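In line with agreed milestones, work has continued on tokenised descriptions of protein folds. One protein thus recorded appears below exactly as we store it:

>
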Amino acid sequence: MVSRFGLVDLIVVVAYLAATTALGFRLGRSQRTATSYFVADRDIPWWAVMFSVVASETSALTFISIPGLSYAGNLGFLQVCAGYILGRIVVASVLLPRYFDGKLVTAYTLLETRFGMATRRFTAIVFLATRGLADSVRVFATAIPVALIIGPVVPREWLLPVAILVLGILTVVYTYRGGMRAVVWTELLQAGIYLLGGIAAVVLLGQAVTGGWSAILSSAADAGKLKLIDFSLARDNPHTVAAGLLGGAFLAMASHGADQLIVQRLLSARSLRDAQRAIIGSGIVVFLQFTLFLAVGLGLWALYGTRTFASTDEIFPTFIVEQMPHGLLGLIVAAVVAATMSTHSGAINSLAATTTHDIYLPITGRGADDPETLRAGKRFALAWGLALTFGALFFPEGRTPVVVIALSIASFTYGALLGGFFLGIFVRRARQRDAIVGMTVGLVTMALVVFARLAIAAAPVLAPVLHPVESVAWPWYVLIGTMVTVGSGTIAAFLPVRSSTPQRT
């Protein structure tokens, strides 16, 4: 199987990696200040920002795990995608105007203007921890198909480590050099490659299955795999109308309004209107993109229905290696690599931006245009790139789809972050103490929800309390965390304080 990866395929992959690195170096020539490095002088056209947002959401998780969802289930995941569009509309109308009014570089600066520096640092640290864990998972996911390909020449115990190191280090190189401008324009190239790869997979699956797509869709319909809408209220089912629309909307509000990874791209747009067009347009493109990869999963089910796999994450990589013709095989592998390199590069830049602007500058007192700030930002980019790469080396293999793991990690803290922003916007009485209390309670609560099974196993006395939330599906995490954060922060706002602290408005 793996030996089919030939010289032509290798040339295609190497050519892609070389082109990406060269583009990053070329775009990095114009970096003179930290503002240029982190938000590209706010001069990126809206359509480029839109595809950059799409590419940042599309890591190897999309390539690997999304087809596995329809292979093992149905099209219910699209309910979550519909919620993504609703959440983006809220971000465009509520949060983006505030970011652009302040000409901010990071999302968490907004919380300082409302509450104070301590809140800004608190949320920045939460983001750094969450993004670091989530993107280590993404790097690990990309290594799965790469490991399948290099298997014949690398001992099995070294397959994933070698793949992780190669992908991680290459991404660090061009991101360190080129900054946000390199991130956006390479992501545009990468989006085109992986979308082409998904379309190619659809065409080939139609040729590989007797009767083509008519037969695939007919058999899928008979098996109930075309089911799209589920009106059930089961709290353990992530793919229902309620979980999709409400949970998906809150997840999108958090990921696109309170997560520096996406906010930083939106802040690089030329105007507020351009940023709004980019974020809403990205929701539509993402919906179509997930439809494409879920269709790939249906085709794989028709082709491999009787075959046993250790994990659903191995199904599409197996098809790539076994069925793709030479040249196209290399292109698809490049597409998989491109998908994660785009997200990985954006994560490195956003982590470096948050570390620089929310941690480093307040401590040192330097200005954003200080040449030393740019040098510090690049050093932070290098450090985070290496940290994410080596973090992926310690991620354990398992049967749970990595897309679910990554979304669960993100959802764990997203509620607290989004709740902090909502407190500042909608609860005028809230002070810095109240925001930190609310977010802390939100984080502790979600830790109990996400890790309920582990907590019950460690302390059975907690079973009566945690059992109701033990099986709550991941789309509900952000909604629950947001409600708890806003609720507890509001209660704290009505409690007396020992000293009178002026409220910021």
User: Anything to note?
Assistant: The two ends are 63 Å apart (CA to CA). Residues 2-390+399-493 form a domain with the Sodium/glucose cotransporter fold (CATH 1.20.1730.10).
